[in-house]
Automatic annotation (TrEMBL):
It comes from the Bacteria. Its main location: membrane. Keywords: Membrane, Transmembrane, Transmembrane helix, Transport. This is Cation transporter. It is found in: Membrane. InterPro entries: Cation_efflux, Cation_efflux_CTD_sf, Cation_efflux_TM, Cation_efflux_TMD_sf, SLC30A9. Residues 16-226 form the Cation efflux protein transmembrane domain. It holds the Pfam family Cation_efflux. The lineage of its organism: Bacteria, Bacillati, Actinomycetota, Actinomycetes, Pseudonocardiales. PANTHER family: HUEL-CATION TRANSPORTER, PROTON-COUPLED ZINC ANTIPORTER SLC30A9, MITOCHONDRIAL. NCBIfam families: CDF. The chain crosses the membrane at residues 12-35, 41-62, 82-99, 119-137, 169-189, 201-219. It is a multi-pass membrane protein.
Length: 334
């Protein structure tokens, strides 16, 4: 496992850099869109505005999720990061995608819009591409580093990541670079053909792109808010650690849940050696929990319940939850 402080600090840097870049680009695109009359440029301006709001929400998520546990929230505030990140996904769709759709359809089906000063649009798009590239490189660097640490491909990492900040910025910046290319093509084809339809189609494509990004991020945060299990590799490691304990004869059930970024709740039911006394079981529970904390930095809370492995109701509950795929995902079957 990796040190938790560094990833959190890097996530903040990634979000702050992306926010500053997006704010500057939004102003540039808006001015260029007004001067050129390009719907695609105005859609890209809305795209950057949406991304700027997203970074503000992500910064809020990073700050509020770091609050320590208290009496009302004994497991901490880690899941706040997922709530604010979900709002960020909604922001992308509401303020970015919807405006792009409106601008695109009004351009395609409305009165033709004359194009003026296309050179300004080309210059702004080129500058925006360079600036977005800087932000994308920072997000990409973090994603590649963390994926390598977990020995995963980038796509596997993005699917299983429990920190929505780097995924949000990486997908936003990737969409921004693609959107800039689409806007350039719309502006260029409008310039060459004199038809504003190309500009409108570019706006619609940008809207579809933003809708896809918003859906992906929204689905990720929805799963995390509901209470997704920990990384399957970590779950298997926890099960192996429990099964190796000399006092445990069988791991009857194992449940994990992400309480936030780098925070895992572990609840397990185990069948202890019947020859152990009550005090022996108590000491074993304390030692096993300490060993799990030491081996897995992300393990935050551990609850161990002694149960008989032959209990039919418990066996039925475990099989109903995991079925025949239990061992594949690191879960035991009693």
């Amino acid at each position: 496992m990796t040190d938790q402080a560094a990833p959190k600090g890097e996530s903040t840097l990634t979000v702050v850099l992306a926010g500053g870049v997006n704010l500057a680009i939004a102003i540039m695109k808006a001015v260029a869109g007004i001067l050129t009359g390009s719907g695609a440029l105005l859609s890209e301006a809305a795209h950057s505005v949406a991304d700027t709001f997203t970074e503000i929400l992500l910064l809020t998520a990073l700050r509020r999720s770091a609050k320590p546990a208290d009496r009302l929230h004994p497991f901490g505030y880690g899941k706040e990061r997922y709530f604010w990140s979900l709002l960020a996904a909604v922001s992308i769709f509401a303020s970015g995608a919807m405006f792009s759709f409106y601008e695109g359809f009004s351009t395609v089906f409305g009165e033709p819009k004359p194009q003026e000063n296309p050179l300004i649009g080309y210059i702004v798009l080129a500058l925006a591409f360079v600036m977005e590239g800087v932000s994308w490189l920072q997000a990409s660097r973090q994603v590649r580093r963390e994926a390598a640490e977990q020995k995963r491909t980038i796509w596997e990492y993005l699917r299983l990541v429990d920190d929505p900040a780097p995924k949000s910025v990486f997908l936003e910046d990737s969409a921004a670079l693609i959107g800039l290319v689409i806007a350039f093509l719309g502006l260029f084809l409008h310039h060459v053909t004199g038809s504003a339809v190309w500009d409108g189609l570019a706006s619609i494509m940008i809207g579809l792109l933003l809708a896809c990004v918003a859906y992906s991020l929204g689905l990720t945060n929805l799963r995390l808010l509901i209470g997704r299990q920990a990384d399957p590799v970590v779950v298997r490691g926890i099960r192996e650690q429990l099964a190796a304990a000399p006092e445990i004869e069988a791991v009857v059930d194992l449940q994990t849940m992400l309480l936030g970024t780098d925070l895992i709740l572990v609840c397990t039911r185990v069948d202890f050696d019947d020859s152990l006394g009550a005090s022996d079981v108590e000491r074993a529970c304390v030692r096993i929990a300490a060993e799990l904390h030491e081996r897995f930095d992300d393990v935050n809370e551990v609850f161990i319940e002694p149960v008989p492995r032959t209990d039919p109701e418990l066996r039925a509950a475990v099989l109903a939850r995991y079925g025949d795929l239990a061992h594949r995902f690191g879960h035991p079957t009693p």
